[in-house]
Amino acid sequence: MKTSTVILDQVVAPVPGGIGRYALNLVRALSARLDGTPSLVGFVPRISTETVRQLEGIFPLLDGIDVSPFPRALLARAWEHGFAVPRSEVTYSPSLFAPLAEHGQHIVTIHDAVPWTHPETMTTHGARWHRAMGERAQRYADIVVVPTDAVASRLSQFLSLENRIRVIGGAPTPDLVVPVDSENRRIALGLPDDYLTFVGTLEPRKGLEQLLSALATIEGLSLAVIGPTGWGGVSVTDLVTRTGIAEHRVHALGRLSDADLASVLSTSRGLVVPSIEEGFGLPVLEAMSLGVPVIHSTAEALREVAGHSALAVDVHGENGTIKLAEALTGLDDETLRRDLASRGKARAAQFSWDASAVRLASVFAELT
Length: 368
Fold this sequence. Notes:
By secondary structure, the protein is of the alpha/beta class. Helices cover 42% and strands 14% of the residues. Strand 11 (271-273), helix 12 and strand 12 form a beta-alpha-beta unit. Helix 2 packs across helix 16 (353-366), helix 8 crosses helix 11 (258-266) and helix 12 packs across helix 15.
């Protein structure tokens, strides 16, 4: 078996988000399937010894972790031009942070087409860098992994990847289990009895402003906002002021542990995902796995992942705010909530990290 290097940057990234969650769970499942065979080595930018030890605990079945002498930002610039790449027969990158070069074989993941379809929702540098790395993938990648057929279709409009695309989606995180002290955790976070949840990195394409605008037209219902600050200057405080919603109704919780996340999600009235665009939408499946009703935008990837087990709303079309408000008030119907919860749990059960790891292992086998 060829020696393979897996890039673990997203697991230790400053804002890991959904991609970090995808990388952690998929690599962990893959390494378990390899049954400890000493052929898969982790690779990270320069990080502390303590963080390396943490990674070794997360991925005990990897045959070690190599640490670059270069920090993340410098390595990103170097890899954009093919410099400072690790020498490996096969590299697997769970994101576009990838050492794509002429030597070796490369599996790279492109999670969405946002840098091409909605560059205005990213920083100028971020959009340019992702497009540049997409072009490197077009040139050097042997196989390009995407999370949904929707992304595969979108990317084909911008990159010539021919028959190199493989679809490997995500699944609910195994660690997302409701703890026995969930009620105490929710109370400690200052949440009321009746609230909705929003989960995602705070950035322009996530549609949080549209959600707050819709909620502002509804009496009483509160919102728990879960996720780290990303880019684009999205501030919950600013959005509250701009949309006119009462400040006490919006609870910005930041990043949460899986135990706290499960506690908050499981007792919420529903999860709302009003994104302009997504590549997969992991929070949709994670909420469904806990029996939580989901309302999402009409982004194609969200439709694909949710199937017919959630409410799809044209949030960003004409009268989008009104339509979203109507969907939110529709959750007052207990029969509807029970139906969505039941269908959602069944849908989430169709996805597993082990199944994704099987598909990824078959991708590796293509390169042997």
